């Protein structure tokens, strides 16, 4: 087994990403976030865009799972969708590359099998993380000999299971095959949920929003407490 992949075992991978409309958008912010994650014990960083990857590579000593989100008018695939994005991710310094490995039509018209074959031919030393949304997609990615399967897109394709919790059932079904290591990713908000994912067979967990997106974290708190004063009476000291 690749020593870098071995180092991920039962660890917490932190996804350091921010959208353009978020206050923390920008390479310097994400590099600082990655440093904080490393200091907190993260085993790797998942990061998006050449600029962020390059900045984070300079800031931390952890393995980087790089991706490049780009929208194409003719496809719903946006996580490192073509070889152009793969090249940018690798040249920016990512140690591994994450790709959309769903069954959705790709912007360049290639099949996922053709895409993975080309990545392996051009970058044979770069491990591939296949982001999938269903069991069938995970099995297909395993057959294509990717290095890691991640449940990243479960609930984010129109045909996958829609739920508010981590997809433990998908993690378990894939892990029980004992073919390719599985990363649990998506809607993980608590340490207890990380443990549940590991118990389900995940090799490691990937946590993003719950750690690195303070605007969304704040929304969670506000959503829970909003309206409290309308339905409850304050407790008075006697």
From TrEMBL:
InterPro entries: Aldolase_TIM, NanE, RibuloseP-bd_barrel. GO terms for molecular function: N-acylglucosamine-6-phosphate 2-epimerase activity. Its EC number is 5.1.3.9. One of its GO terms (cellular component) is cytosol. GO terms for biological process: carbohydrate metabolic process; N-acetylmannosamine catabolic process; N-acetylneuraminate catabolic process. It catalyses: an N-acyl-D-glucosamine 6-phosphate = an N-acyl-D-mannosamine 6-phosphate. Pathway: Amino-sugar metabolism; N-acetylneuraminate degradation; D-fructose 6-phosphate from N-acetylneuraminate: step 3/5. Keywords: Carbohydrate metabolism, Isomerase. It comes from the Bacteria. Converts N-acetylmannosamine-6-phosphate (ManNAc-6-P) to N-acetylglucosamine-6-phosphate (GlcNAc-6-P). Belongs to the NanE family. This is Putative N-acetylmannosamine-6-phosphate 2-epimerase.
């Amino acid at each position: 087994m690749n020593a870098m992949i071995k180092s991920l075992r039962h660890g917490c991978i932190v996804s350091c990403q921010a959208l353009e409309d978020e206050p923390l958008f920008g390479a310097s912010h994400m590099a600082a976030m990655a440093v904080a994650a490393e200091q907190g014990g993260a085993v790797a960083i998942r990061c998006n865009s050449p600029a962020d990857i390059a900045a984070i590579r300079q800031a931390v000593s952890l393995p980087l799972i790089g991706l490049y989100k780009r929208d194409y008018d003719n496809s719903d695939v946006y996580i490192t969708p073509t070889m152009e994005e793969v090249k940018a991710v690798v040249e920016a310094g990512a140690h591994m590359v994450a790709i959309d490995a769903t069954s959705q039509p790709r912007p360049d018209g290639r099949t996922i099998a053709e895409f993975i074959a080309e990545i392996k031919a051009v970058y044979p030393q770069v491990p591939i993380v296949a982001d999938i949304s269903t069991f069938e997609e995970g099995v297909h990615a395993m057959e294509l000999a990717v290095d890691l399967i991640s449940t990243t897109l479960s609930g984010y394709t129109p045909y996958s299971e829609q739920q508010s919790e981590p997809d433990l059932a998908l993690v378990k079904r894939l892990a029980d095959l004992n073919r390719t290591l599985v990363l649990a990713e998506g809607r993980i908000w608590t340490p207890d949920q990380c443990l549940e994912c590991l118990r389900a067979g995940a090799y490691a967990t990937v946590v993003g929003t719950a750690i690195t997106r303070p605007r969304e974290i704040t929304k969670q708190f506000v959503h829970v407490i909003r309206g409290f004063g309308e339905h409850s009476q304050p407790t008075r000291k006697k």
